[in-house]
Design goal:
1 helix; four-stranded antiparallel beta sheet; 317 residues; mainly beta
Length: 317
């Protein structure tokens, strides 16, 4: 009887998690010109958005508006000697570390509010640096995923010293998506490093020491069969995965259930969804910003809508 009741409670929990509450509303914040791939995003303290581009090594700032066509964009900086820009993380208020090719740069917007000259911190002997998250704010250390080598680096942004802190089978690369790719996005929340492996379609986490970045527990696979590029995680451990060429946003609960909350395989709005970050509306409600790469090697219904976008999900997230 006890085991039967436990199963019923578990089933009710899953059904509630996957309940039929109305989906959040999706709207366009800003669209870049054709050929622009928007790869990553961070939200500034003033509510503006910093977005990284893959097709050109640039960081842009978007001043968002809820009115279509009223958002504006401004170039923040161009990274010389780089091919593209990937991960972004805030080191301290309005000071950011940015991955450009296999180098990490500091971009300080705390003094000059609009444009900045990036300062190179270090170049790592990496395969392909990708996602990045702040590990220890006091020491300004960051964790960076290496998608090609299937591991995580720790970088001290003060000294430029770096070392490998994670390498696990769940991070290992494969060429199932055409490129040799493994661990992709990563985030750090409540003492856990969350990460995904795009070609393996898994979403994972590991409990870590916030000072050293080292593992304090096993590498856990939270969810299977979820394609993602990058993602956002809230304080309750609920993740919102940008579904790459599945053109969706998938909500993943801490115990594994997941559901698509926006988009579909033929969605033009979320065509090649790449990353996500939380912001706030004027009324204090959460909003989820989602970046897209636009048309990829697999265009939606042969459409000619190619420009990457910043989309927003508002409502019951």
């Amino acid at each position: 009887m006890a085991s039967g009741m436990t199963f019923i409670i578990f089933l009710l929990t899953v059904l509630c998690a996957l309940g039929s509450s109305p989906p959040p509303s999706l709207y366009e914040v800003y669209k870049f010109p054709n050929g622009t791939w928007v790869e990553n995003i961070a939200v500034r303290p003033n509510g503006n958005l910093l977005v990284a581009l893959v097709n050109t090594p640039e960081l842009w700032e978007i001043t968002p508006s809820t009115h279509l066509g009223h958002s504006t964009a401004q170039l923040v900086c161009h990274f010389d000697r780089a091919d593209s820009v990937n991960g972004i993380t805030e080191l301290s208020p309005d000071i950011y570390a940015v991955v450009a090719s296999n180098s990490v740069w500091k971009v300080d917007l705390s003094v000059c509010q609009n444009v900045s000259k990036p300062i190179q911190i270090a170049t790592l002997p990496a395969g392909t640096l990708n996602g990045m998250a702040t590990l220890d704010e006091e020491r300004r250390s960051v964790a960076i995923s290496d998608s090609q080598l299937g591991l995580v680096w720790r970088l001290n942004t003060h000294t430029g010293n770096y070392t490998v802190i994670h390498q696990d089978e769940t991070m290992a690369p494969t060429d199932e998506l055409g490129l040799m790719l493994g661990i992709n996005g990563l985030r750090i929340t409540n003492g856990y490093l969350y990460y995904n492996n795009s070609p393996r379609r898994i979403f994972c986490r590991v409990h870590i020491d916030r000072h050293t970045g080292g593992a304090l527990g096993p590498y856990e696979t939270i969810a299977h069969n979820v394609l993602a590029d990058d993602f956002a995680v809230n304080s309750n451990g609920i993740a919102y995965l940008a579904g790459l060429t599945d053109n969706v946003v998938t909500k993943v609960f801490p115990n594994g259930p997941h559901k698509v909350i926006a988009g579909s395989l033929d969605s033009k709005d979320l065509m090649t969804a790449t990353s996500a970050a939380f912001g706030k509306l004027p009324n204090g409600r959460d909003i989820l910003y989602v970046t897209t790469g636009g048309e990829s090697e697999h265009p939606v219904n042969n459409t000619h809508t190619r420009g990457g976008k910043i989309m927003a999900l508002a409502g019951d997230l």
